[in-house]
Design a protein that fits this description.
The chain is α/β, with parallel strands linked by helices and about 260 residues long. The chain has nine helices and seven strands, in the order H-H-E-H-E-H-E-E-H-E-H-H-E-H-H-E. The protein has a seven-stranded mixed beta sheet with strand order 3-2-1-4-5-7-6, with helices on both faces. Keywords: Methyltransferase, Transferase.
């Protein structure tokens, strides 16, 4: 099977369909938690590459960081701009451009991060090398990707084989592969984490199917219940345990530029 990486038109169509943020799940909360755990956010100069809805960037701006978002999909930036205007953020900046040839000088940012991006390219190393170029010495990059050993991977590749996957094609990583990618780009390992899909994959599939029939299930069906609070507390305590990375949907690594 030939590999066809998603182009700008794919992402513009995707974000045109997904412009109602109330219906779209945010990225894993573990991304923000990993950033908060490892960085002092006030005044931190941050770039999110491939911003999607921009909700992570908006949260970092709310916490005092000076945040830029870079995306080449116009419809993604429209969503982020709506969020920026509704919240009145003066420290959230939008830039349209190519992640592989970003319009920033060397050594610009304290932190560059992306979620759901590196897996869409046959060769992800040039992306991380470009991240390395624009990160300051002593600054960091966070890369968050799908984890290999998960039912999501099986379902994804069935849909790819049927030419039904939303992005056409996508790969995945083990924690070892992700750490190697970061090292190959020049970064030194700092921190690793992972997270499970909350709510789970099969509920999300059911919810998407219901949308096709005009039925909208709750985004978080057990939100606020004692069961969900206890479950989340247990999962949060396990998300950085190495063996758990083989059960999680997404994994992330933070690397530092020497």
């Amino acid at each position: 099977m030939s590999i066809k990486e998603p182009d700008q038109s794919v992402w513009n169509r995707f974000w045109q369909r997904k412009n109602d943020m109330d219906k779209v799940y945010p990225s894993s909360p573990s991304i923000i938690e990993a950033i908060k755990k490892n960085f002092k956010l006030e005044g931190l100069k941050v770039l999110e590459v491939g911003a999607g809805t921009g909700r992570d960037s908006a949260e970092l701006a709310r916490l005092g960081a000076d945040v830029y978002v870079l995306d080449y999909a116009e419809n993604s930036l429209k969503i982020v701009n709506s969020l920026r205007e509704s919240e009145g953020f003066k420290n959230l900046h939008l830039v349209r451009g190519d992640a592989f040839k970003s319009p920033f000088p060397d050594n610009t940012f304290d932190l560059v991060f992306h979620q759901g991006l590196a897996e869409h390219f046959k060769d992800s190393l040039p992306l991380l090398q470009e991240n390395f170029r624009i990160v300051k010495h002593g600054g960091c990059c966070l890369c968050d990707v799908p984890q290999t050993v998960h039912p999501y991977t099986v379902i994804k590749h069935i849909l790819i084989a049927m030419d039904k996957w939303f992005a056409g094609w996508e790969k995945q990583f083990t924690m070892g592969q992700l750490k190697k990618l970061m090292r190959d780009a020049g970064f030194e390992y700092v921190y690793a984490y992972g997270d499970w899909m909350r709510p789970n994959l099969f509920y999300r599939i059911l919810r998407e199917l219901c949308f096709k029939f005009g039925i909208e299930l709750p985004k978080y069906p057990l939100d606020g219940t004692a069961y969900q609070k206890i479950k989340d507390k247990i999962l949060d305590s396990l998300q950085s345990v190495p063996v758990m990375h083989y059960t999680q949907l997404c994994i992330g690594v933070i690397g530092r530029k020497p």
